Amino acid sequence: MTYAKPLPTIDDDNRPFWEALTHGELRLQRCLACGHHRYPIAPACPRCLAAEHEWTRLSGRGRVFSYVVFHHVYHEAFRPDVPYNVALVQLDEGPFMFSNVVGVPNEALRCDLPVTVVFDRVTEAVTLPRFRPLEDP
To answer: Which of 18, 38, 58 is the last residue before a domain boundary?
Structure first.
């Protein structure tokens, strides 16, 4: 079966992020000047503007900061998923990441819910980070 939903564009700047996901790791850039973990991926640190960075493995843990449940079809490829959630997760290391919370009914979602990353391989080249609750909501 072909994956019908939009896929990310993988380029030289973000390739380490996407490759790490295919290996079951969540990696983000960490500034070598100030230590700030940055997301979205960028050529310079938003905190100190230094370009030097390394790709660091993160714990994959965080908390739901906010979320919305979509009840309308805004893109045909998502029709089978309606209603579905989009959550803003704050990772324990600081960055915020938009994703979905899986393994829990939408009605059970709440802000501050502890979550951990899970890896959803949607194509041979693309694995998406999603999150599941660390506890029963």
So the answer is: 58
